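Review this fold:
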Amino acid sequence: MELFRHHRSKVWSVDLGYYNGKRIRRSTGQTTKSAAQTVAAEMDKKLKAAHGEPASLERKVMPTLQQFADAVYLPYVKAHTSLKPKSKDSYENGTRLLKNTVLKVSKEESRPYAATTLLSKVTSADVKTLKVPGGPSNCNQMRRALRNLLSLAVEKEYIVVAPRIHLMKERKRKAVYDAKLEQKIMELAPQPLKDIFLILFDAGMRPDEIIRLEWQHILWDEERIFVDHGKTSHATRRVPLSDRVREALLERLRTRKPKHKDCPWVFPSVRKSATGHITDSGFGKQFRALRAATGFTRDLVLYCARHTFCTDFYDGCGNAKLTQEVMGHGSLAVTQIYIHPDHHGMDDVINARNRARAERAATTTEVDVLTAGAANFGRTFGRTGQVIQFPNAVNA
């Protein structure tokens, strides 16, 4: 018999053991542990009177976080058939980050968290103090993996209840490229960063879609680029092929090395890789070096070019559904995150409205106002027969 309490609950529950092959867990209905022990003892007594002693099952040895991750969790993630490859990668990378975390016990003492913490001793308070390289996004990837790991531990009955793991608040991308920043990048960026930035900026493709771009997907006659597959099922789409992207791709075709003549990739790997195309690590380093050299703010990342494309495309066409499809989003709610409206000129909109209203007011007679009022609020005027009185006006 073991008392426990679920997260968010003030009421104690009891694990009464196994009877007839089933694990019996019940709520005591008590918020104090002493009262809960009394109620639990009575429940235990009644169960034993009705069914005899609970089945004696071999108690599992409590592993550390790292032992459970290596022996149970990671094999489970790899063998999971309904998990998408991106989700598997995320959980595996989150587990890797978790293994490298260090818990600071005191000012002088710290210890590897995953290697020294028993699965049953994980607390939300300790998890909040763990730091991982990178920003909140990386930290949340680690915490999501830990959440999933603890959920599996409950299901496998290593622990009774999992602690609640809170996610950090991630900063949304707000930076977009203005004309000067765009020109600066185009002038200073080395290849392949320059062409990748240009496609991001003019076609709105994701970086992982660009590095897997094949020559057969360039629809020269239609002035489109066909995105064969991507992050979601909505990623398959056609995006615009601008004049300068066309020129850049034609130049890439003309200047490619003889060993890449038969290569299907637009951005082939310089060194022989498993995929045959480049990875995002290479041009990612190029961009970070360029940002450091030019003094750009750290909020400005390469992906902001996709946000800029979405903002400019929507401003130009005014069609939200078309913008969603070109971006490869599953819903308009996601597309709205990518649109950063320009706040300049808001006063011009209101001033223009006020001038138009003032002009209408100057040319409108009292009879026109009554007629318009009756048309707009006909039900009210028709029911009450109300007549508006104007000062110095003749009522007909």
Observations:
- The radius of gyration is 32 Å.
- Confidence is low (pLDDT under 50) at residues 379-385.
